[in-house]
User: Which sequence fits this backbone?
């Protein structure tokens, strides 16, 4: 009977250890999914996916996109000096400002960052685009593209 009691206690301890390991694995997996989908820490196993924003100067203006150079990146994915191709088709209802070469802009994006054939970074989903005024704040803008 004594051996039976010891086996029961060992079995219960084993079940508790297995349960703790399973819960830990589930929590870590859920945390990784949350970070990869919605941003937060950009140091995930899937770099280039997240959300963020950066300030930039407009180098070129085209019909449906602009070429910019990052002047200040707020996530590790986009850093000062990076050249990016930014779509003027945003996913928000915010109006897109009319931008010209030399304008300072703030770009909000979500999703994957890819690289174009000429080496520029291209955020896949632009949330909003804002002009930055002389004081560094989000300035007023005129509508249109």
Assistant:
């Amino acid at each position: 009977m004594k051996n039976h009691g010891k086996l029961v206690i060992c079995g219960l301890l084993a079940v508790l250890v297995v349960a703790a390991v399973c819960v830990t694995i589930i929590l870590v997996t859920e945390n990784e999914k949350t970070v990869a989908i919605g941003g937060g820490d950009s140091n995930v196993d899937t770099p280039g996916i997240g959300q963020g924003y950066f300030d930039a100067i407009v180098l070129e203006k085209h019909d449906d996109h602009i070429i910019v150079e990052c002047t200040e990146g707020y996530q590790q994915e986009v850093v000062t000096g990076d050249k990016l191709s930014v779509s003027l088709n945003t996913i928000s209802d915010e109006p897109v400002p009319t931008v010209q070469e030399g304008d300072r802009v703030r770009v909000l994006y979500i999703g994957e960052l890819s690289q174009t054939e000429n080496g520029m970074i291209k955020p896949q989903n632009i949330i909003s685009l804002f002009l930055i005024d002389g004081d560094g704040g989000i300035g007023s803008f005129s509508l249109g593209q």
Summary: The domain at 49-131 is CATH 2.40.50.140 (OB fold (Dihydrolipoamide Acetyltransferase, E2P)). The beta strands are 49-61, 65-73, 83-87, 104-115, 121-131.
